[in-house]
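Re: beginner question about structure tokens

> Can someone show what the tokenized structure looks like for a real chain? I only ever see the sequence side.

Sure, here's an example I had lying around. Input first:
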Amino acid sequence: MTTNTNTSRRHFIVGSSAIATGLAIGFDFSLMSEAKAAMGTGTTAMTPLASPEIGVWVVIKPNDDVVVRIVRSEMGQGTITGLAQMVAEELECDWTKVSYDYPSPAENLKRNKVWGSYSTGGSRGIRTSEQYVRKGGAAARMMLVQAAANQWKVPASECVAKNSIITHTPSGRKTSFGKVSVAASQLEVPKDAPLKDPKDWQLIGKSVNRIDGVADKVTGKQIYAIDLKFPGMLVATINESPVFGGKVKSYDATKALSMKGVKKVVQVGDTAVAVVADTFWQAKMGMEQVNITWDNGANINVSSASIKKMLEEGLEHPDSFVHNTSGDSKAGISGASKKIEATYFYPFLNHATLEPQTATAKWTADSCDAWVPTQDGEASLAAVIAASGLPAEKCNVFKVNLGGGFGRRGAFQDYTTQAVNIAKQIPGTHIKLIWTREEDMTQGRYHPVMMCKLTAGIDSNKKITGINMRLSGQSILAAVRPAVVAANKGKDPLSFQGLEDSGEHGFTYNFPHITIDHAMRNTHVPPGFWRGVNVNQNAVFIETFMDEMAEATGMDAVEFRRQHMGKHPRAIAVLNAVADGIGWTKPAAPGVFRGVAQMRSFGSYVAAACELSVKNGNEVKIHRFVAATDPGYVVNPAQVARQVSGSFVYGLSALFEEEITIEKGAVVQKNFDTFGSIRLYQMPPVETIVIQGGGKEWGGVGEPTIAVAAPAVLNAFYRATGKRLRTVPLKNSGIKLV
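And the corresponding structure tokens:
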């Protein structure tokens, strides 16, 4: 059943919807020829209707090729392959014949959001869509089997599907998916398609090869958004107020307009100026000749020092938002015979995607199309609709391969909005906006800055009598989703990731007297969802302090954790796995020291243990990591191992190298010379242990393990040097990774 939706911009709302594996027939899915030419053969879009849809998730071609529709974004994490595996498992098709395509978000809107959420972040790509995509595969299998049974005039219960072949068991007759696909596409979609029992899975849980064009990525053939080309296309670059909250006061474009290739200089909203030229280099050179006078506003006086002073005030302020409390921590600490205390600092961080922000748009009075490297096609479409001034049915977004996301290209569509706003000023022409690296560094949506003060009381029997954990810092949701904060009476629940009293970010320790609270201190620096988000700093805070408490009570660090994790057997299991893997109870090699950490986030239990040595007091060599992750179910173990290793690159880079600082209201770091990442020679081997806890759990993979890398290293560094490091990045303490 199909419905043509005439949706105004005002009423277009992006969000999750209930999913039905309904049959949808009657739309033209053929590619726009110009889009296909620009994006290259490696990019897919909706498969033409000539290949029958079996439900809405599966297309079967006459030659038995299977096309799986996937709306989540691929950023190297393997989501495309994982989702296709789940559909193929229930479909019972030949995996070697599987490919994929992207339904556009405009098509999704037209079809009443039948494909559900396009958002890819928070490690949700697999875990929040597994139910309905698997049911889509199961429903398609039932339809194919029924079509074959109808042709043979036998009960469907006598037929089975396997490897894209349908067999009538009593007679041995066989047919292929492709031969019955047209008939199957005309059947009613089953309302409730039963799913396989996990014990019967043949494809889920296997390390099958990826289907998202890995070879093209390795050889450089892959077309990314920054590579797009259209006939007559112009290229723009932009300069936005370096001080957040600032505006354009005036600008003089005389010199720029006299330069070769420069076509136009335009103001973009109140805050930016763009130069449009034949090539990116010409636009960049032209931008350097535009004389812009900025109205910096009051934020010109903000600096990292003033921000830190504000956070320090928050550590001691009597008012805060309590999110996790048990017993009476204040009394427990005040009555203790011994008290330990530690204060931590975690900085702003940029996403620093290798491909800077970019989008291409073409606007006319009757249509607006955009080609966007996006983590959320629906959010991109909403941005296009809002900026274009056109009704929703006149707008479309084509998802293009993105060169890194990490949260920057999801909820934040400023680059998409800018591209449309520039294109509106040059109607009928494709405008490709490319940010410079400097623009990308200084106009980010940054990991929130945070401080933490932890205090614990210990009695004469060396028992913990109370813990107080005060967070002081920025709230992402206050800036991005203020309605959530308002609904929680001013509290940002996201700030407590890994520390919650329950849920997918639940605290895995049991202390009778504990208070965890947050003094919200927001800055003018725009915060964002940075891979792993708040669990990164929260793991550093709590997991290094766990080691301090263990030492103060005279206990082994692993045993101390186990003693306080009795209600969390899966957390204990991952901790035990890394402890055994690293050889925790056995002596390390001379000069080698070990550290451990564990956490729960995004529905997964993770732990890490490392071995390192320290030379000259400040040169750290990490010899190895052992990492354990339990996401409940694992679709592709090889992809899990890759994601764990990749997440450690992110975690270690943030620990040793990365920070964003503020002077005179603006970001100081302009490029990779001042915002670095670890190099290949510095990266230690990572041994990944995958544990499948099962049950009803589908946890995340791409983000949870980032958090445990840093505290494991910090705990090992203390054992090597006797120094507790509580300020990140370590380069500011003279510590370097070798």
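Each token stands for a local structural state, so reading them left to right follows the chain. The chain is about 30% helix and 20% strand.
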